[in-house]
Specification:
This protein is mainly alpha-helical. It has eleven helices and two strands, in the order ααααααβαβαααα. Helix 2 runs antiparallel to helix 4. GO terms for molecular function: protein dimerization activity. One of its GO terms (biological process) is regulation of transcription by RNA polymerase II. It holds the Pfam family Dimer_Tnp_hAT. It comes from Rhizophagus irregularis.
């Protein structure tokens, strides 16, 4: 029969693994396009599993590297080493060691995500603010999207806008200052990334419908999104 402190350890273990369960249920409940949500989910898990620096961690001196094969062994070893639990400190040390093992594994496999994952996340209007990303990854994602944008965009020609009618003073001033020209640098990519002009979509948005509804506003980016999600856009 388990002792009270062992039951307490099991309760703490369930609590510790709850974020993984939540992430699994969230990703599994999506209708499609899970790839665009993976990296953001990993970032949240990294935050949840950051070890407490004030609690000691039992390190595995024989093998400091955590990977898919030995992570479960690390957890088993923690339980074996603390088979005689006597205090909450023992429980906290075990839990912190488990959190560190998960945390290290997340960094080992997802420290630098694949380019396809970054692009999918940025092309998802629900996550285009790249909330919680490092500045370096944000800039990398923007660079990747800009590269794809340049591949697909049509030749941009500066558009001159003339007033329908001009007074003499307006006509004369235009000869001094020139006609108003919209620079091609203010393109659909900058408009898409600008969260004032294009607010981030709500979490329950159908992103494929969003792109179809906005394809006239973002014709080039629609081509990029359609290529990246070509299976889902095949019938549109």
């Amino acid at each position: 029969m388990l002792s009270n402190i062992e039951w307490k350890l099991l309760d703490k273990l369930i609590e510790t693994l709850t974020p993984i369960e939540s992430a699994t249920q969230f990703l599994g409940g999506q209708k499609y396009c899970t790839l665009s949500l993976i990296f953001s989910s990993i970032q949240i898990l990294k935050y949840d599993y950051t070890p407490d620096p004030n609690i000691s961690v039992n390190s595995d001196k024989n093998n400091e590297k955590n990977n898919e094969e030995n992570l479960h062994l690390k957890i088993e070893n923690e339980f074996a080493e603390y088979s005689l639990l006597s205090s909450d400190n023992d429980i906290n040390s075990i839990i912190n060691s488990i959190k560190k093992g998960i945390y290290d594994a997340l960094f080992e496999y997802w420290n630098i995500p694949p380019n396809s994952t970054l692009l999918a996340s940025l092309l998802d209007p629900r996550s285009k603010t790249m909330y919680g990303w490092s500045n370096e990854l944000q800039e990398l994602a923007k660079l990747l999207l800009n590269t794809e944008y340049e591949k697909y965009k049509d030749n941009d020609i500066p558009i001159q806008i003339y007033p329908l009618s001009q007074s003499r003073s307006q006509s004369f001033s235009s000869r001094i200052f020139g006609s108003q020209i919209h620079s091609s640098t203010d393109n659909e990519l900058t408009q898409y990334l600008d969260n004032f002009r294009t607010p981030q979509a709500s979490f329950d948005t159908d992103i494929f419908k969003w792109w179809i509804d906005n394809r006239e506003k973002f014709p080039t980016l629609f081509k990029v999104a359609r290529y990246k999600y070509q299976i889902f856009f095949a019938k549109n």
